[in-house]
Specification:
The complex is a heterotrimer of chains A (782), B (162) and C (290). Chain A is built from 19 helices and 31 strands. Chain A is α+β, with helices and mostly antiparallel strands. The longest helix of chain A has 28 residues, at 544-571. Chain B has helices at residues 26-33, 90-97, 107-120, 126-132, 144-158; strands at 4-11, 14-21, 52-55, 58-61, 74-76. The chains are: A alpha+beta (782), B alpha+beta (162), C alpha+beta (290). The B-C interface holds B 1-3, 5, 22-23, 25, 28, 44-46, 49, 52, 58-61, 63-66, 68-69, 113, 116-117, 131-132, 134-136 and C 1-8, 10, 30, 33-34, 37-38, 40-42, 50, 52, 54, 78, 101-105, 107-108, 188-190.
């Protein structure tokens, strides 16, 4: 065995598709899922299990006077009812390591102690024999809250969070260059006030946690886990006072993650603590209303941004002050979204000076965290609105303005004196101008302008817009993969990654198949299990394909080398003339004899094989891929919209996402990521919003009020996958593909709506609602 | 209150008899009482479509029907779509071939909805397919691949060359 | 989101159902369940007794006789949508149904359920108002008729005594050559309309408007007829200007305000959709549109 060392990158894969990589093969995941044989959280059941129901705050802010569970406890079938006193020894939910100081007092207790801070905050937990009974009992818990005024506007001056603490835990400041000097010498200064609405991932499967204590082995198991199993395991163990090796997390099928699922939430700890204390398996399945109230929200920000430009429209400086509506508590991400927004705002443009202050502010709403393209959906909207406004002010074509400011290929890798998530921003590779040209060409921009002019002449209200974005992906520092060929020749790949339903198994199998020389479809991929691999950094930040994919490549290369070295003497050939095809070691020149199967080699390397004496047996290797820098995919979104003058409704007629992701391991899956990501971006641009009334009561708590786009809202979508700028940072040249479809949707649709209205800069807020558009139409009317 | 009733019904061609609380909805009955967890519960208020099953051949939301109301009726769930020998239904196959699913949570509801729809509309337009699945939320795919899969399945069911 | 407990009753006849209604405290009728079941799940409805109408005989069916369309209360929306007789005799209803929910909800949802749920923007209630429908109501004393104009007592409150139930709806048919249109604006297809408009027109031999019906859903507490618009239309020669003027009557109507839409926006939509519906109805009356 090769051990857990990390060596130099193994050979980079040559450009272009290989045997398995670069092919649109069907997914390993699909057969059980289409048969209804998946295992989602709610499908997990254990004998003797009890069901947990959480009693939640119905007021946005108040002093918790009393919680009376007497009637609930008396209900037949109720096993226990817990209030904060019952979990007093469990610390608040922590956040992941960050250099931002002072966040600790703002973390959420597992059950509210003396205050409630948002509608939906857990106050008590009921445990009963079935889910219906648990809900009956929860209704009987009497909660007395003395209302306090609710803070609902993050841009308003901070209020008191608790005695001596105000509602602004921190301000994230970044910058470089002499901003004040740039503004002093600017040809023009452009200033905007822009807002992005509160919306979130809202996966179709709600959260779930099924905890079980196995006294025989002293093991605590948590099923229904996702995304960050290993970090969550370590924290659950710490918070409950157990060694990490006595806690195991299991990920089954995951019904969508999008950033919100798989974080450590109060309910996870409640279920685990109850399984230990009540000595019964505990099942908690979030209902949809809870999902709207209790699972992380995202996105809500207001930016006051200024740009200084020269006479040609070149950026001299950007100065941005923004207010991030974090909701009631700091959660596991800490101030990460603010950090991402501040660090990623400059996007693809050359920028000599930059200053940003991100006010991280608490309000009496559901806590917020990351959602697909966090901090980028928001700042791409802001930055691209700014670019359009500059173009308008200086009467320069908005595309030409962007061209003048794009970082050139010759400048790559392009270091920005900024850091994001503790990693220096170095745009690793890219040909931004080329992709812009490709996108305009593919969208038929020139012909489109003509057809728009013709349609306007006949009375239609149509317009087109575009936006450029830079994504980030492949967050390090490490991820590991262990690949083993067993004595039947079956390949097992164990990864510390997780899946949120995007096709991780297939992608890792394709990379393994390519490097090892086996078919991808027989590879067994194991992930999301802390009992099978000691470490893992999970599935987020578009990191799995980059990090675990690269580790897979290296581990498979190592297994391949071992197989060839073992086979060579037995075949009486040198390893250099050998290759592996379809799991058979044979000569590179195509001769079919002599040969040896991987199964035979694995048997040769077994623990009872005399040849292995003194060595670690097994045809197996574990490799860890390390990365100090993120890799930066980029792209262009183009939108064509038509506005109904009578209703103000915006219909997106055509849309293009052009995205350079370095290398597409499976183009079909990449298209799927982009199309799905686009639909979510469309939701945030036109439909989805968590709204609150003036007392902090949430108004979007059903699928009838929180409007997710359906098949009839989707425009004709075109996806252009470019592979012109492979990342130099990993052996396959991969950049993540998970978030580029979402990133610039709000920005591009806003530009198109402006264009249709003939009112540059009209759109200042997302989502763009029909009533708002009607007001804008009125403004234009004579 | 925990009134229960004993009900008999046909599920995926099999005669089933079981006790159910009268307030239990059909989706919980199929999943919990009968162990058919392929039917997914996404909202329990009748909007997302994940729990769609066929009752007497008609697509209905299983969260909006009490289990007792299914007594004497024929229910088909996603588990009942493939042939007895395990061969995938043409819709199931088309979803695999066209990447019509990512997380797979909406898939059972999409499939059951489309079974009824394609039986009535063997040669649908893309627009008709979109309307047919407009009561099923998918959060992963953006729908285009599902529409493509449905159209391919329609061709397969008609016996046209793909 | 699991319903609270209730006792379940599944009568076989209308008489049994009415008797149960008379006998049981805090009972609710369960028709298609597409509105009541979510209310139970969200625990905003807490009936002690649920009386399921799905096994009651004789409550479904569609007949067209002597110029009157009669639809049994438990007739599924999907059966109405697919009825050739209704498409022929009352195409406004067929058109409205394409906006009602989705395939799966129409497979279960009933016309009687829609009428009694009485959502302000429910398409079928708007259609019933547009067509001067009569609601047949059964009670302990036998059956009585309620004009649709008298049916809503207020927001989502039908004029039914606790022991009464709807058994059918009767709709007097318009002349075969009438023009009709149902238009609505919803944020997404299949959602409850923010505003809907139904228009029917009959032209006389001189091409003037002999009869007009204009109805708005989603504006008031229940669907409402815009008689001022109807008066403005009748006797006039149809022109775009006339339709614009008639539609302008809608802007002054007091409109609801909710998180989905402010009142002013509903008023604007009411006027726009009415104008569009009238234009479409006219085109159909003259055979210029299908």
């Amino acid at each position: 065995m090769d051990g857990t060392t990390h060596g130099p990158d193994d050979a980079r894969m040559a450009a272009g598709p290989g045997e398995a990589v670069g092919r649109a093969v069907t997914r390993l995941e699909d057969p059980p899922l289409v048969r209804g044989r998946g295992l989602f959280a709610a499908d997990v059941n254990f004998p003797r299990q009890i069901h947990m129901r959480v009693v939640r705050a119905e007021l946005a802010h108040g002093l918790l006077r009393s919680v009376d569970a007497t009637a609930a406890r008396a209900l037949p079938g109720v096993v226990a009812v817990w209030t904060s006193a019952d979990v007093a020894e469990i610390p608040s939910i922590p956040f992941r390591a960050t250099k931002v100081q002072g966040l600790e007092p703002y973390c959420q207790p597992v059950l509210a102690r003396d205050r409630v801070r948002y509608v939906g905050e857990p106050i008590a937990a009921v445990f009963a024999e079935d889910a219906y009974l648990a809900e009956d009992a929860a209704d009987l818990v009497a909660v007395d809250i003395e209302p306090l005024p609710a803070v609902l506007d993050a841009a308003a001056p901070p209020a008191e969070f608790a005695p001596g603490l105000h509602t602004e835990p921190t301000i994230v400041r970044k910058g470089f260059g002499d901003v004040d000097a740039a503004f002093a010498m600017a040809h023009a200064v452009i200033e905007l006030d822009l807002s992005v609405g509160r919306h979130s991932g809202v996966p179709l499967e709600t959260r779930g946690a099924i905890a079980r204590y196995d006294a025989a082995r002293d093991l605590l198991e948590l099923h229904g886990a996702a995304k960050k199993q290993h970090w969550n395991r370590d924290e659950i163990a710490r918070l409950l006072g157990r060694p990490p090796s006595s806690v195991h997390l299991f990920e089954g099928h995951v019904g969508g993650g999008f950033g919100v699922r798989g974080e450590l939430y109060p309910e996870d700890l409640l279920a685990c603590a109850a399984a230990l204390r009540l000595d019964r398996p505990v099942k908690w399945i979030e209902d949809r209303r809870e999902n709207f109230l209790a699972t992380n929200h995202s996105r809500q920000q207001r930016h006051r941004i200024r740009a200084a430009v020269d006479a040609e429209g070149r950026l001299l400086a950007i100065d941005d002050v923004f207010f991030h509506d974090q909701g009631a508590y700091v959660r596991t991400h800490g101030a990460r979204v603010v950090d991402l927004a501040a660090g990623m705002l400059p996007g693809p443009y050359r920028l000599p000076a930059y200053r940003v202050a991100g006010h991280f502010r608490l309000t009496n709403k559901t806590p917020a965290a990351t959602y697909r393209a966090p901090g980028r959906y928001e700042t791409t909207f802001v930055r691209e609105r700014l670019m359009d406004a500059i173009a308008t002010r200086l009467a320069i074509d908005p595309i030409e303005l962007r061209r003048r400011n794009l970082v050139a290929t010759a400048e790559m890798p392009y270091p920005r004196p900024l850091d994001v998530l503790g990693s220096d921003v170095v745009l690793d590779s890219g040909d931004y101008a080329k992709l812009l040209d490709q996108a305009l060409d593919r969208f038929g921009w020139k012909a489109l302008r003509e057809s728009i002019a013709a349609r306007r002449a006949s009375g239609e209200c149509v317009g087109a817009g575009l936006a450029f974005f830079v994504e980030k992906s492949g967050l390090g520092p490490s991820d590991g993969v262990r690949i083993t060929v067993d004595h039947t020749g079956t390949v097992e790949l164990v990864s510390g990654a997780a899946s949120v339903g995007q096709g991780v198994d297939t992608v890792l199998a394709q990379i393994c198949a390519e490097a090892l020389g086996v078919g991808y479809s027989g590879i067994r991929v194991v992930r999301g299990r802390t009992d099978r691999i000691e470490f893992g950094n999970g599935a987020h930040a578009s990191r799995v394909t980059v990090m675990s994919g690269s580790a897979t490549w290296q581990a498979a290369q190592a297994v391949r080398a071992m197989a060839l070295e073992t086979a060579a003497p037995l075949l009486q050939l040198s390893p250099e003339v050998l290759t592996i095809r379809d799991g058979i070691v044979q000569r590179k020149d195509g001769a079919t004899e002599p040969s040896m199967t991987l199964a035979e080699i694995a048997r040769q390397m077994g623990p009872n094989s005399p040849a292995m004496r003194g060595r670690t047996p097994g045809l197996t290797a574990e490799k860890w891929f390390w990365s100090d820098h993120m890799t930066y995919p980029y792209g262009v979104h183009c939108a064509l919209v038509c506005i109904d003058r009578g209703t103000g409704a915006v219909k997106v007629e055509r849309y293009l996402v052009a995205n350079d992701i370095g290398r597409a391991i499976n183009p079909m899956l990449v298209e799927g990521q982009i199309a799905g990501g686009f639909a979510q971006g469309l939701g945030g641009a036109l439909y989805e919003e968590f709204r609150y009334d003036e007392t902090g009561q949430p108004l979007s708590t059903t699928f009838a009020d929180y409007l997710i786009p359906t098949a009839t809202e989707m425009p004709a979508l075109d996806v252009l996958i470019a592979e012109d700028a492979p990342s130099p940072l990993n052996p396959l040249g991969i950049k993540g593909a998970g978030e580029g479809g979402t990133n610039a949707v709000g920005a591009a649709i806003a530009a198109a709506v402006d264009d249709a209205l003939g009112q540059p800069g009209a759109v200042t807020t997302l989502p763009i609602l029909p009533g708002t558009v009607m007001r804008l139409l009125d403004r234009a009317a004579p | 209150m925990s009134e229960t009733r004993r009900i008999t019904l046909i599920v995926n061609g099999e005669h089933r008899e079981a006790e159910t609380p009268v307030r239990q909805h059909l989706a919980d009955f199929l999943r919990g009482t009968l162990g058919l967890t392929g039917t997914h519960v996404g909202c329990e208020h009748g909007v997302c479509g994940a729990c769609t099953v066929l009752v007497d051949g008609h697509a209905v939301r299983a969260c909006l029907m009490l289990a007792v109301q299914a007594a004497g009726h024929e229910v088909t769930t996603v588990e009942g779509l493939s042939l007895a020998d395990g061969t995938l239904h043409p819709l199931q196959q088309a979803f695999c071939d066209h990447h019509g699913l990512q997380c797979g949570f909406c898939t059972p509801g999409m499939l059951t909805t489309l079974v009824e729809f394609l039986a009535e509309h063997p040669a649908p337009s893309e627009e008709e397919v979109r309307l047919a699945i407009s009561g099923n939320i998918c959060r992963c795919t953006g729908y285009d691949s599902i529409v493509a899969a449905a159209l391919a399945a329609a061709r397969a069911l008609r016996g046209d060359a793909a | 989101m699991k319903p609270a407990g209730f006792a379940y009753h599944d009568p076989q006849t209308v008489a049994e159902a009415v008797a149960l209604l008379g006998r049981l405290e805090n009972a609710r009728l369960l028709a298609g369940g597409q509105s009541l079941m979510p209310m139970l799940a969200m625990r905003v409805a807490f009936p002690d007794h649920l009386i399921d109408l799905n096994r009651v005989e004789g409550l479904d069916g569609i007949t067209v006789e002597q110029g009157v369309l009669r639809i049994g209360a438990m007739t599924r929306q999907r059966s109405i949508e697919r009825s050739a007789a209704i498409r022929e005799a009352c195409p406004l209803m067929t058109e409205a149904l394409t906006h009602v929910g989705h395939l799966q909800t129409r497979n279960r949802g009933t016309i009687g359920g829609s009428l009694c749920h009485l959502d302000p923007s429910a398409e079928l209630v708007t259609v019933a108002a547009a067509l001067d429908a009569t609601i047949e109501v059964a009670g302990p004393e036998g059956q009585r008729d309620v004009a649709i104009a008298d049916f809503p007592l207020g927001f989502m409150t039908p004029a039914l005594a606790p022991e009464e139930m709807v058994v059918a709806i009767r709709i007097p048919l318009w002349p075969r050559e009438h023009g009709y249109s149902f238009m609505e604006f919803a944020r997404r297809h299949g959602d409850y309309a923010i505003v809907s408009a139904a228009a029917l027109l009959v032209l006389d031999s001189a091409g003037r408007i002999a009869r007009a019906s204009v109805t708005l859903g989603g504006v008031g507490a229940a669907p409402l007829r815009v008689t001022t618009a109807e008066t403005a239309l009748v006797g006039e020669a149809p022109t775009p200007a006339l339709f614009r003027a008639a539609a302008a009557c809608c802007e002054g109507i007091e409109a609801m305000e909710d998180p989905q839409a402010p009142a002013w926006y509903r008023q604007r939509l009411a006027a726009v959709l009415t104008r569009r519906a009238l234009e479409r109805a006219w085109a159909r009356a003259t055979g210029e549109a299908a």
